[in-house]
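Hi U.,

Before I forget, here's the chain from the pilot set. I'm dumping it here mostly so it's searchable later in email.
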Amino acid sequence: QVQLVESGGGLVQSGGSLRLSCAASGITFRIYAMGWYRQAPGKQRELVAQITSGGSTNYTDSVKGRFTISRDNAKNTVSLQMNNLKPEDTAAYYCNAAHRVYGSRWGQGTPVTVSS
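Structure:
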């Protein structure tokens, strides 16, 4: 059974930091591209950051220089370090595992609230 379990969300003041983690099970983690998406109330889900199986990363423009995605293939985890958080970063954050053959999997989401 595939499971992606996020943790680390919460309430933080503007300018603060949070670190999200996602623990994966039931997949061959190292072959999947891992991503963090977010969805704010009334908005579409958007890609925040992604790291490929080879370790290449990409970020949406609004988080470049503030967020860092990383993966630990030995522990089957992917993390998102979020610094200098802004109120517009408030959203539910979702972990995603994607493979061109085996498809896509989602976690249940973790809420992030940034107060001004």
